[in-house]
Design a protein that fits this description.
The chain has 325 residues and is of the alpha/beta class. It has two domains: 2-117 and 292-322, Alpha-Beta Complex (Quinone Oxidoreductase, Chain A, domain 1); 121-259, Alpha-Beta Complex (Quinone Oxidoreductase, Chain A, domain 1). 27% of the residues lie in helices and 29% in strands. The protein is built from eleven helices and 16 strands. Helix 7 (218-223) links the parallel strand 12 and strand 13. The longest helix is centred in the C-terminal third of the chain and has 14 residues, at 267-280. The two termini are 12 Å apart. The model is unreliable at 47-51 (pLDDT under 50).
């Protein structure tokens, strides 16, 4: 079968297409005929946290497809079912998925839509619900809101009844996101948005901030927080990995600062995240309140072009790879 491998080094990631043997499912695993797979910035952008120097490894982290074969002990699924989930090596014709990571695909979703959901919306569940405790009526601020995670955060927050402020360097992207419920758009890529956030929230600040951008806006995110506000750090598009913390603000406003990453989580913790997503967000996807926003779909042969498009920062929502056949 055909599979892509990825290798990081010298400030870049390199893709290689290989012919490899079809994998066999082990205990607790599902063999998937992959129909589509989502691209994620952390894998492709060197220095973003996941792409580390070393030997090439199978590329892709999430996918959607049809179950072909079950490993020993798998009882919750059967061959022929449509599932989506975290899926190491998803940029391939066949891939293995853990049973605890697999989620049945709602009937209304295409393969491409399903492929853009798992990692993105499970991360959003972690930062908005599990850790962020966002509730109806609160204000959410998302920096770099046009990313896949940013758009999913907007959609989920609106489904929860929250109000959303987003920053982006593109006025066009902010305008397009109004159709998804964006309440306030701030056109900027810099740490200069606190005043606009305070104006929008009546001087109170944002209850939860999602920082997709990184260290260059970290201090401004803290300034924009309300009393007992929460700050989620989920990415660093700017490559700035250090920032000063206003200890007085942290102390007096009783702030909570937390990170959002699956990098060091155990299999059980990842499975718990999947269960939380199924309980709290999947129903809104299944009934159409949330519809994954897919920016572009590329054919399997076009993965290098899809990678280049992601690196250009032109996307609004998710980029998806469609498998051959």
């Amino acid at each position: 079968m055909q599979s892509y491998f990825i290798q990081s080094g010298a400030g870049q990631t390199i893709l290689e297409r290989r012919e490899v043997a079809q994998p066999e499912p082990g205990p607790g695993q599902i063999l998937l005929r992959v129909h589509a797979a989502g691209l994620n910035r952390g894998e492709f952008i060197a220095g973003h946290g996941l792409a580390k120097p070393g030997a090439a490894k199978p590329a892709g982290g999430e996918g959607a497809g049809e179950i072909v074969k079950l490993g020993a002990g798998v009882s919750g699924f059967k061959p022929g079912e449509r599932v989506m989930g975290r899926c190491p090596g998803a940029f391939a014709e066949y891939a293995l998925m853990g049973e605890r990571e697999a989620v049945a695909i709602p009937a209304r979703l295409s393969w491409e839509e399903a492929a853009g959901i798992p990692l993105t919306f499970m991360v959003v569940h972690d930062m908005l619900i599990a850790q962020g405790r966002l509730i109806a009526g609160e204000w959410l601020l998302v920096t770099g809101i046009s990313s896949g995670v940013g758009v999913a955060a907007l959609q989920t927050a609106k489904a929860l009844g929250a109000k959303v402020i987003g920053t982006s360097g593109s006025a066009d992207k902010l305008e397009r996101l109004q159709a998804l419920g964006l309440d306030v758009g701030i056109r900027t890529r810099a740490g200069d948005f606190c005043a606009a956030v305070m104006t929008a929230t009546g001087g109170k600040g944002a209850n939860l901030v999602v920082n997709n951008v990184g260290g260059s806006v970290f201090a401004e995110c803290v300034r924009a927080l309300a009393f007992q506000g929460r700050l989620a750090t989920v990415g660093y598009l700017d490559g700035v990995l250090k920032a000063e913390i206003d200890i007085e603000a942290l102390h007096s406003k009783r702030l909570v600062l937390f990170g959002v990453s699956n990098k060091l989580r155990s299999p059980e913790q990842r499975a718990e995240s999947a269960r939380g997503f199924v309980a709290d967000i999947l129903p809104a996807i299944a009934d159409g309140r949330i519809r994954p926003l897919i920016d572009r779909v590329y054919a399997f042969d076009e993965l290098p072009a899809a990678k280049a498009y992601m690196e250009s920062n032109a996307q609004l929502g998710k980029i998806v790879l469609r498998m051959p056949g």
